[in-house]
Amino acid sequence: MSIWKEKVDLNLIAERNKNTMLTYLDIEFVEIGQDYMRARMPVDHRTHQTLCILHGGASCVLAESVGSVAANYCVSQATHYCVGLDINANHIRPVKSGYVYGLAKPYHLGKSTQVWNIEITDDHSHLICISRLTMAVLARKL
Question: What domains are defined for the chain?
Answer without folding.
Answer: 10-139 (3.10.129.10)
